[in-house]
Amino acid sequence: MSSLHSRLKAFPSLTFILFWLLASALLLTPGQMRATTTVDLLVRGGTVVTMDAQRRIIPDGFLAVQGNRIVAVGTAAEAGQYRARTVIEASGKAVLPGLINAHTHVPMTLFRGLADDLALQEWLTKFIFPAEAKNVTREMVRAGTRLACLEMIRSGTTCFVDMYYFEDDIADVTEAAGLRAIVGQTIIDFPVPDALTPQIGLAQAERFIQKYKTGHPLITPAVAPHAPYTCAPETLIACRKLADKHGVPLVIHLAEADTETQTILERYGRRPIPHVERVGVLGARTIAAHVIQTQPDEYAILKKYNVGIVHCPQSNMKLAAGVAAVPEMRAAGLAVGLGTDGAASNNDLDLFEEMDTAAKLHKVVRRDPTVLPAETILEMATIEGARAIHMADRIGSLEAGKLADFIIVDVSNPRQLPNYQLASTLVYATKSSDVETVVVNGKLLMRDRRILTLDEAAIRRETATFRKRILESLQK
Ligand SMILES: CSC[C@H]1O[C@@H](n2cnc3c(O)ncnc32)[C@H](O)[C@@H]1O
Ligand SMILES: [Zn+2]
């Protein structure tokens, strides 16, 4: 005791520290006395755009991640109890849910710019289907998917819905890149690169579904009948049965162009939406892309089956397919997400561009600047998109318990200032190159624009090889 006393005398500063520790312990409130919690990842200091039910935007907020889930979201003052293995300082930046590309064909990045400025039927039948017949192989699909994943990570997409051929390869590459996806094996009534008949396609789809259906952390398998004009009623029914048998989503192009309406009317005496209802293809977890050729009485049909709608404004504009009645479908209670479609009809996979376009397109066609305001558009790319793809219980907002899929976006560029209203800044003034950091399922895929899961240089080389091959194939 005496020795302690003499030491304390010798070190007055130590006395002070002991006194201070005791005093602060006595003055701490029970909340402040909580033990610290160690988490895997802590993002602090940014403006957290939660997209939760109250649409809370938390300036100087934080986000804590443990494993693949968000465990806490709040103000910086509440972040004190968290210690983390990885801390990301996000002041001056926005932290938002990862963007959801609800309709695409990822390998088509390798057909980007191959056939432009054409209407849908001509584009598909004269250029894209023949180019696919000559070029789509497992190898090509893997290379195109890698390029797409690189582009999507760089532009803030964390989840996408795909429909194409060789989907097991798409799933494999997507998993390696670390992205989340609903991956739909295409079924179509003519011979395609991975199936000579729809029956073979269906058998393949079932094998693929069985491989991925039990709780894969990133991949949800799906059945993807191409469209009502390329799939006979028997094919559509078989797809629905397969989806129901395994409880997986069904993804389809629906009511895209007036040529589809004419064909379906001629063949079956009904418009596309009543036709697919009558056939029985609408059902649980249906995701329908485009949905342009609609009449007001058809929204109730879509609502009855809780069909998720995907609006693809840039593809629809480029193929001159028309303008979907997005405000009316939303008013009818339908969930409408955003999609880019494939890179051959867009020509990129950039959801920041898609948001800007969607917001402006509907204003100009209606001569009404109040339709689809920036906040609504941001919803369509996040929580509403998650509803459209039937995943809103897991993704689309930043809330404790949800999967940790989020992006950190710089909002301090001169082009974004003075930033009066964050939704406006994000939709109208932000570029995909402002995305700095991307996290999916709790894992960092890009940090400060450095890609962590893909070899960017190798992807550039591989793309150049396929460019040459595809060009040569078209000259034969
Ligand atoms: C089911 S996906 C595979 C198939 O669809 C083709 N495709 C790409 N974009 C569109 C579109 O907007 N409408 C219809 N079909 C499309 C793609 O080239 C594949 O052959
Ligand atoms: Zn499409």
TrEMBL record:
Gene3D superfamilies: Metal-dependent hydrolases (3.20.20.140), Urease, subunit C, domain 1 (2.30.40.10). Coiled coil: none annotated. Its cofactor is Zn(2+). CDD domains: ATZ_TRZ_like. Residues 95-444 form the Amidohydrolase-related domain. Keywords: Hydrolase, Metal-binding, Zinc. It catalyses: S-methyl-5'-thioadenosine + H2O + H(+) = S-methyl-5'-thioinosine + NH4(+); S-adenosyl-L-homocysteine + H2O + H(+) = S-inosyl-L-homocysteine + NH4(+). This is 5-methylthioadenosine/S-adenosylhomocysteine deaminase. Belongs to the metallo-dependent hydrolases superfamily. MTA/SAH deaminase family. Zn(2+) binds at H103, H105, H253, D341. It comes from Chloracidobacterium thermophilum (strain B). It holds the Pfam family Amidohydro_1. It is an enzyme of class 3 (hydrolase). Substrate binds at E132, H226, E256, D341. PANTHER family: AMIDOHYDROLASE-RELATED DOMAIN-CONTAINING PROTEIN, AMINOHYDROLASE SSNA-RELATED. One of its GO terms (molecular function) is 5'-methylthioadenosine deaminase activity. Catalyzes the deamination of 5-methylthioadenosine and S-adenosyl-L-homocysteine into 5-methylthioinosine and S-inosyl-L-homocysteine, respectively. Is also able to deaminate adenosine. Binds 1 zinc ion per subunit.
